Amino acid sequence: MKSKSWLAASCLLMMMACADAALLVGGTRVIFDQQHAQATVQISNSGQRPLLAQMWIDRGNEGARLDEIDVPFAITPTVVRLEPGKGQTVRVLQIANGMPADRESLFWFNALEVPPRAEQAHGGQIMEFALRTRMKLFYRPRACE
Question: Locate the Pili assembly chaperone N-terminal domain: which residues (predicted)?
Fold first, then answer.
């Protein structure tokens, strides 16, 4: 029984792939209080190469295209280039009203890490991934504070 567990664990370890995520998003959630004009999110590049970060907010539909998303928030800047070891403050602004005043509303903050193109090594094949970080954004009206 013990050898079967060890064998299963070994097989899982052999199947693990390496990922090089360099975009760090500060915090585990964003809370947008109605009484404040904005919320801020810290992003930084912990990698060794520059990267592009694209941010947007949605209502939870992961498959929605960016031009189809209708949310009462805007992010500035929406796309930023981050040099290695550098950071940026991203602002979330409310641009529309009409949300419930008696309860919190849930949205999703998305940050997409777009790595630079890798140089091909002697005609070899390269697979690149753009990694997305999602975290909850809560809109908190004055009545809930």
Answer: 24-143
